[in-house]
């Protein structure tokens, strides 16, 4: 178990992240390359959906990351509120644009899959609606950070929003079971195990892994930016007073 | 060449499959560019502020 307190020192965190980044970045590149190759060339067309099934390989990882990143944001917010860990706020803030991007990708690719498959780009069923709400919560979270000048107060307000909004995550996940939805039920995260062909599963797992390590890579860069931004802010305040 | 065209056509679903991939890869690429460009800009700003700070350190200490 990593000693979180060791990472509390921004300088130490930056040194550690500089060591880790080439590896995380490298693994990301390999997983994404292998995953896209598998998705576009190796995996077969679907019996019913034909080649449209290949949209699944970008849609499912995007949707999964939209929720995974939010979960990380909410967990970091909880750590910030309970233990006042200085980097927790920063991790949450840095995660938000990444999660937003994945949510947009999930909704967009879903629409592009829905039109040929369902005959409609959009339907207000439980799954689609709750993911759209997730997007609004992400946007609200970023707006809150931007609206409040003092980073400590902004962080606290944003943390509360992130935690309240996390109730949406189980709603999204179980929406296809609790309600009559057009969106299909779970094929991967089911009690009985995945229900999918193995070459397709490989493509999906490679891209799920690649998207996850991609998130960590971009997160490290953006946390670094946040640390620098706070130093800049402190220096500007000092110089304004001097 | 025929094989490439067949592959690009995606069984008739090209207008849905390729925009989906373009959107996903596009947002991911944009995040990388934005993060790295921002990091470079922040480093430059911080360097400039620290140089200014060191230059004016003497004046502040005197006051």
Largest sheet of chain B: none
Overall average residue pLDDT of chain B: 90
Name the chain pair whose interface involves the most residues: A-B, 38 and 34 residues
Determine the N-to-C terminus distance of chain A: 44 Å
Tally of DSSP helical segments of chain B: 3
Q: What is the chain-wise order of helices and strands of chain B?
A: HHH
Question: What ranges of chain A have pLDDT less than 50 throughout 5 or more consecutive residues?
Answer: none
Radius of gyration of chain A: 20 Å
Record field, number of beta strands of chain B? 0
- The SSE order of chain A reads HHHHHHHH
**Residue runs with pLDDT of under 50 for 5 or more positions of chain B:** none
Tell the overall outline of chain A.
Answer: globular
Number of DSSP helical runs of chain A: 8
Helix % of chain B is: over 70%
What gross morphology of chain B would you assign?
rod-shaped
In short:
The complex is a heterodimer of chains A (242) and B (63). With 242 residues, chain A is mainly alpha-helical.
Q: Layout of SSEs?
A:
The complex is a heterodimer of chains A (242) and B (63).
Chain A lengths: L3 H4 L2 H33 L13 H28 L2 H33 L7 H22 L3 H15 L2 H11 L19 H44 L1
Chain B lengths: L1 H8 L4 H42 L1 H6 L1
């Amino acid at each position: 178990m990593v000693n979180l307190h060791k990472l509390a020192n921004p300088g130490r965190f930056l040194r550690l992240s500089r060591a880790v980044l080439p590896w995380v970045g490298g693994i990301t590149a390999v997983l994404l390359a292998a995953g896209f190759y598998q998705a576009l060339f190796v995996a077969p067309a679907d019996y019913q959906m034909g080649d449209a099934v290949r949209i699944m390989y970008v849609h499912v990882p995007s949707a999964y990351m939209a929720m995974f990143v939010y979960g990380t944001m909410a967990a970091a917010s909880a750590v910030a509120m309970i233990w006042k860990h200085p980097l927790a706020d920063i991790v949450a803030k840095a995660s938000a644009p990444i999660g937003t991007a994945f949510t947009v990708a999930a909704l967009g690719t879903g629409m592009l899959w829905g039109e040929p498959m369902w005959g409609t780009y959009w339907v207000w069923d439980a799954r689609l609606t709750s993911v759209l709400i997730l997007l609004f919560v992400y946007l609200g979270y970023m707006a809150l950070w931007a609206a409040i000048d003092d980073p400590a107060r902004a962080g606290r307000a944003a943390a509360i929003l992130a935690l309240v909004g996390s109730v949406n995550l189980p709603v999204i996940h179980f929406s296809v079971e609790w309600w009559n939805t057009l969106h299909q039920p779970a094929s991967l995260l089911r009690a009985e195990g995945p229900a999918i062909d193995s070459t397709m599963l490989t493509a999906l797992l490679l891209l799920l892994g690649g998207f996850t390590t991609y998130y960590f890579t971009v997160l490290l860069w953006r946390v670094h930016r946040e640390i620098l931004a706070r130093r800049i802010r402190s220096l500007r305040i000092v110089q304004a007073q001097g | 060449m025929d094989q490439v065209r067949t592959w690009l056509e995606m069984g008739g679903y090209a207008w849905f499959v390729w925009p989906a991939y373009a959107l996903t890869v596009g947002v991911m690429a944009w995040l990388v560019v934005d993060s790295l460009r921002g990091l470079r800009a922040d480093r430059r700003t911080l360097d400039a502020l620290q140089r200014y700070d060191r230059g004016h350190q003497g004046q502040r200490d005197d006051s």
